[in-house]
Amino acid sequence: MASRVYLMNMRAGFGENSFAKFQKMMKKVGIDDVIRERDQAAIKLHFGEQGTFSYLHPVWIRETVKIIKKLRANPFLTDTSSLYTGGRSYAVSHIETALIHGFAYACVNAPIIISDGLKGTDGVKVEIHQNHFKTVSIASGIYHADSMVVLTHFKGHMLSGFGGALKNVGMGCADKAGKYKMHLGAIPLIKPELCKGCLLCLNSCPGRAISLIKKIPVIDHASCIGCGQCFSFCQNGVFKIDWDAVPPATIVERMVEFAYGALLNKQGRVCFVNFILNVTPGCDCLPFSDACIVPDVGIAASLDPVALDQACVDLVNGQQGIPNTAMNHGFEPHEDKFLTLYPQVNWQQQLEYAQQIGIGMRDYELITVGG
């Protein structure tokens, strides 16, 4: 049986505005069954890196908060620390970035909690027994939440072809150690000239793999467990990730397994909403927003993230592409926009693998909500 995906377009008028349509769609998707009274309800989103402006507009977060509070639950906005150095690499700067982008309590009526703690090290081990990982490390705030609404800006992505609900959950619910294992899980690169000799890396390494030789940090490859603690604790950028060490296909499958782990203790307690608005060629982690590749499509919701992402890919590919963007061909409706952007990436892989390990199914029934 195909999974149901609900879609609202962005047409509005005096009879029904977009917020009323959004509330109607959330009702139809089954939000009343997902969120229960007194739940500590996570609203998982991406606050956007400083320099970009294509992240979700705070008004949609406020509407989601309103819906959850009507169900007598306790919503909080959440994300996890980024692996790279930037405005979201630690909790304090992450919250500051969110506030700069308009996600203050006064605007959205809910607090912000960075789910993997002050430095991205607060995670819970979850057993999944999949092909790449037997256990995954999920941010504790997300793991301990009773329910979750996943709000995602749907767009292109250089690593996975597109970024949708699966990526938001897979990459976005992992702590720093988990993100490291997705991207590499091996020996980090070292920039010794940046070392100040503070010894934080040495003292925090659970594998006792780091030593200081002539004031230069050295990693014992045999002892390194690939946990990512060194670059989580280092304040000077000494430890870097070798982004080319693992093929993108492997990273995508690892990401999907983390999504499996993040959802494992929340069966029937997660609702996914993709905003097919401002569809940029790159992700919100970039410090800029490139021109949108297709017109706004609408907002889609489902209890099945695989069906939802598949539907959103199909909806984007069904649009007329916009010229003078990152695309230089493939503009016609039903031409593959994501393959045009990233011809070296098989965007279908994350959907195929997610279906294979039981997260959801690619077959869907698209149901239109409102006029």
Automatic annotation (TrEMBL):
UniProt keyword Iron present: yes
Keywords carried by this UniProt record: 4Fe-4S, Iron, Iron-sulfur, Metal-binding
Residues covered by the 4Fe-4S ferredoxin-type domain: 186-214, 215-244
Gene3D superfamilies: 3.30.70.20
GO molecular function: 4 iron, 4 sulfur cluster binding; metal ion binding
InterPro entries with a match to the protein in the record: 4Fe4S_Fe-S-bd (IPR017896), 4Fe4S_Fe_S_CS (IPR017900), DUF362 (IPR007160), Fe-S_Ferredoxin (IPR050572)
Protein name: 4Fe-4S ferredoxin-type domain-containing protein
